[in-house]
Each structure stands twice: as C-alpha cells, then as structure tokens.
Design a protein that fits this description.
This protein has one domain: 3-Layer(aba) Sandwich (Rossmann fold), CATH 3.40.50. Helices cover 40% and strands 18% of the residues. It is built from five helices and five strands, in the order E-H-E-H-E-H-E-H-E-H. Helix 1 links the parallel strand 1 and strand 2. It is globular, with a radius of gyration of 14 Å.
Length: 139
C-alpha cells in the first residue's frame, strides 16, 4: 500500500497560504498550514510530514533557512519559497530545493516529487522526539 504524501505549509501570508493549500488539495495531497516557526515545530512533533513548503522571508519570524534546517532534522524534506530575488545566490549555493515567486504550479509539484524520490529509500516510520512512533498513514 502506497504511503500518502503529507505536506506542511509554513506561510504567514493568508492569501499565499490558501493558494498553496488549493494547489496541494487539487493534486490530492494531504496538508496542514501554519503561520510561524513555533507552529511548524509543534506540527512536526505532532504529525509525520514528508515535505515542508516554507516562506523564506518571514517578517518578525524565524528565517526560512533555519526553519528548513529544522524540518530536515525532523526527517522532512523542505522547499523554500520567496519572491525576493536577492536570495537567489544564497539559495543556489545552499543546495536546498527552492522556488522563486511567481512560479508555475507544476514546478512545485515536480519538486515535491523529487523530494519524495530522494527520500524513498528512507521510507521508514519516523519517531517523535519522545521515542514513540507516528501512527501508520493509510494509503
């Protein structure tokens, strides 16, 4: 039975967050949405996500590079999204998955697919920090 991909959207702009949710819903992904890095950390502790889509420039919040590192440490792939092209060189040098706004929907879906392919070999049930396992996800 195939495992359903679950995406965590970390975006403080309501319109962008809703748009990303619509994209993932239309493509049949399960997803959750949060506003802040603290909410992201709680979500990663409470559920088993495959990919986090993170707004890179977050006014009054943690920077996206730090959040992406935290997501990867939790066993979750990360995609940084920004409209600020000043970060392009740093993004390219970082080796991270990223998208510059505006982007095509298919570009986002393709990157999610690439992350899932990269992590397929590690498709084991991840554990919470207390050692307990996340419940099995239905196919």
């Amino acid at each position: 039975m195939a495992r359903i991909c679950k995406v965590l959207i970390v975006e403080n702009d309501d319109g962008v967050r809703d748009l990303l949710g619509d994209i993932f819903e239309d493509d049949g992904f399960r997803f959750s949405m949060v506003n802040t890095g603290a909410e992201m950390c709680r979500a990663l502790e409470d559920d088993d996500y495959d990919v986090a889509v993170i707004d890179l420039t977050r006014p009054r919040h943690e920077d996206g590079f730090t959040l992406a590192q935290m997501a990867r440490a939790a066993g979750c792939g990360a995609i940084l999204v920004t409209s600020d092209h000043r970060y392009l060189e740093r993004l390219q040098a970082s080796g991270q998955h990223f998208l510059l706004k505006p982007f095509k929907v298919q570009e986002l879906i393709d990157i999610v697919g690439k992350i899932l392919a990269e992590t397929a070999a590690r498709c084991v049930r991840r554990k919470r920090s207390d050692g307990s396992e996340f419940p099995a996800r239905p196919g």
